[in-house]
Design goal:
By secondary structure, the protein is of the alpha+beta class. 51% of the residues lie in helices and 8% in strands. Helix 1 runs antiparallel to helix 2, helix 8 packs across helix 10 and helix 12 runs antiparallel to helix 13.
C-alpha cells in the first residue's frame, strides 16, 4: 500500500510528522503551536519551505481520510510511510535535526505521553536502531517525564464510580471506538447513522462484559453506566480534534495489550471481528472504506485468530458480487451487428443524430451535473470535488471555508429528493456559525445543515436553499 501523495517532497513529509506529533495525544497546547512556528522558521532558513506547504499537507491528509468516504484509509500507515521516506531520503544529519524537532514537540508540556512515546520510538527504531535509550536519557535529564507503558485500563477505575462519570476509559470504550469508526465509514444519505446501524449497535454493544482482576466492566455492570452517555463520551474523544485516527490507533494498541495480558481472549477477538463485519453489512452494503479497514485488521490479527480468515473470505465474496454488478452484461442492449447500443448519462439510447460533434451544452446533464453547473455559476471560485460517484455531490467553497477538506454537499439518492449540508470538522467555525444562526441551521455528526434537514424535489428549490444556507454560513 502506498498512501503517501506522489507530489510530496521533503518539506511535506516534515510537516506531516511534525503535525502528527502535535495531535497524536489528542490535545494541542499553545507551546506546541509555538514550537511548530519555530520549526517551520528554522527549516525556512535552511531553504526547506515547511510553512509554505503546511496547509496543503493538512488538506491532503483530510482529503485522504474524510469520515465516511469510500477512500478512507489507515492514518498510521501514512505516518509510517513518511517515516520510511525520511529513512530512505535523509542523511544522518537531517534525521537528527528532524528528531530534535519531533522530540521537543512531544516534550512541550514537560510530559511525553504514551502515544507520543510510541511515535518517537517508531522514528528512532527506523532511523537510529538501538538508540532509543539515548533519547530517553536526554529527555529525562532535562526534567521531562516519559510514559513508556500504557496505564492499566482497569487500575484507573478501582474504588471509583462509573467510568463515564469520572471521565475515565476502559476496555468497553475501546470496543465502542471500533463500532463507531466502522459505522462512520458507511454511506449516510442523511449525514447521520442509519437505523440499521444504530439498532445493531444498540443490540450488540451492551452485551460486552469482562471481569478483570475482580472488577466488572460492561453496561450491564454500570461500568460504564449507560449506552447514550458512553456513546457520547466515545464520540467526544474520537472527534474532539476532528481526526479520529489517533483514538482509533490507541484503541487498536489497547486491544493488543488486552490480548497479551489475557484480558481479551481469542473468542472475544472472533466476536469483535464478526460483529464489525455484521455492522458493515447492517444496511446490506459494505463500502470500500469499511472493506479496506476490516481487511487491514483481519490481516493484522490473523496470527492470533484463525477466524480472521473467515471474515477475509466473506469480504472477497462481496468483491466478486460488486464486480458482477459493475459488469452486468445482461443489462446491456446490443444491435443487429452485436455491438452494444450506446446510452447517454440519463440512460436514453443514442440515435444517429446524437453524434460526438454535439456541443457539451446540448448533452443532457445528470442531476448532480445540473446542481454543480448552476452552483458554480453562482460561486465561480467553487471547486467540484466529487460528482456522479455515488449519492453525494461534493463542492469545496472557498467563500465559506478556506480548507479544502470542507465542502457543501448535495445528497441525491436514487429514491429521489435532494438534501443539502456542509461537511466540516472545524469546531470553532461550527460553534460560531451556530451562535449566529441557531434557528436557521443545525449540527449533525459531520458538520452543519439547514434546520430540519429539508428535502427538495426540484433543482431550483435545492439551489435556492443551498444559496441561502451558504449566505448564512458566510455572514
Amino acid at each position: 500500500m502506498n498512501l503517501l501523495p506522489k507530489h510530496w517532497k521533503e518539506e511535506h513529509v516534515i510537516a506531516c510528522l511534525v503535525r502528527h506529533l502535535m495531535i497524536v495525544d489528542s490535545e494541542v497546547i499553545q507551546g506546541e503551536m509555538d514550537w511548530m512556528t519555530k520549526t517551520a522558521e528554522d527549516y525556512s532558513m535552511e531553504g526547506v519551505d515547511v510553512s509554505g506547504v503546511w496547509d496543503d499537507v493538512d488538506d491532503d491528509i483530510v482529503n485522504i481520510f474524510p469520515i465516511g468516504s469510500k477512500d478512507s484509509g489507515d492514518y498510521h500507515i501514512l505516518v509510517n510511510e513518511a517515516i520510511n521516506y525520511v529513512d530512505q531520503n535523509f542523511d544522518h544529519g537531517k534525521k537528527q535535526t528532524l528528531l530534535h524537532y519531533l522530540s521537543n514537540m512531544a516534550a512541550q508540556d514537560d510530559v511525553v505521553k504514551y502515544p507520543e512515546f510510541l511515535s518517537l520510538k517508531l522514528c528512532i527504531d527506523c532511523w537510529f536502531p538501538g538508540q532509543l535509550d539515548v533519547l530517553l536519557n536526554d529527555l529525562q535529564n532535562s526534567g521531562i517525564k516519559i510514559i513508556t507503558n500504557k496505564t492499566s485500563t482497569h487500575s484507573e477505575n478501582a474504588d471509583q464510580g462509573t467510568s463515564d462519570e469520572n471521565k475515565t476509559w476502559n476496555i468497553i470504550h475501546d470496543i465502542g471506538v471500533f463500532y463507531m469508526y466502522f459505522a462512520n465509514l458507511a454511506e449516510h444519505p442523511d449525514g447521520d447513522l442509519k437505523d440499521e446501524e444504530l439498532n445493531f449497535i444498540g443490540d450488540n454493544f451492551p452485551k460486552w462484559n469482562f471481569n478483570i482482576d475482580g472488577i466488572k466492566y460492561g453496561l450491564q455492570h454500570d461500568n460504564p453506566k449507560d449506552l447514550q452517555t458512553t456513546w457520547d463520551y466515545i464520540f467526544g474523544k474520537m472527534y474532539e480534534n476532528g481526526d479520529p485516527m489517533p483514538r482509533v490507533n490507541e484503541s487498536h494498541r489497547n486491544i493488543i495489550d488486552y490480548l497479551n495480558n489475557g484480558s481479551f481472549q481469542t473468542s472475544n477477538l472472533e466476536t469483535l471481528l464478526s460483529t464489525l463485519y455484521d455492522l458493515c453489512m447492517a444496511d446490506e452494503n459494505i463500502t470500500e472504506g469499511q472493506k479496506h479497514q476490516l481487511t487491514y485488521y483481519c490481516e493484522h490479527f490473523k496470527p492470533n485468530c484463525d477466524f480472521a480468515d473467515v471474515i477475509l473470505g466473506r469480504l472477497n465474496e462481496k468483491s466478486f458480487e460488486k464486480m458482477d454488478e459493475m459488469f452486468d452484461f445482461d443489462a446491456v442492449e446490443f444491435d443487429l451487428e452485436g455491438k452494444p447500443i450506446g446510452q447517454n448519462v440519463r440512460g436514453d439510447t443514442l440515435n444517429d443524430s446524437q453524434g460526438s460533434d454535439k456541443s457539451v451544452a446540448e448533452v443532457k446533464l445528470t442531476l448532480q451535473g445540473e446542481l454543480a453547473n448552476e452552483l458554480t455559476k453562482l460561486y465561480p471560485k467553487a471547486e467540484v470535488k466529487k460528482i456522479d460517484d455515488g449519492n453525494y455531490l461534493d463542492v469545496h467553497m472557498p467563500d465559506v471555508h478556506p480548507k479544502r477538506g470542507t465542502h457543501i454537499w448535495f445528497n441525491t439518492p436514487k429514491a429521489g429528493g435532494i438534501k443539502v449540508g456542509f461537511f466540516c470538522r472545524d469546531k470553532d467555525f461550527i460553534e460560531d456559525a451556530i451562535k449566529r444562526n441557531s434557528g436557521a441551521i443545525e449540527i449533525y455528526s459531520n458538520g452543519l445543515r439547514p434546520a430540519g434537514h429539508p428535502v427538495f424535489d426540484k433543482v431550483g428549490d435545492a439551489l435556492k436553499a443551498a444559496n441561502d444556507f451558504i449566505e448564512v454560513l458566510t455572514k
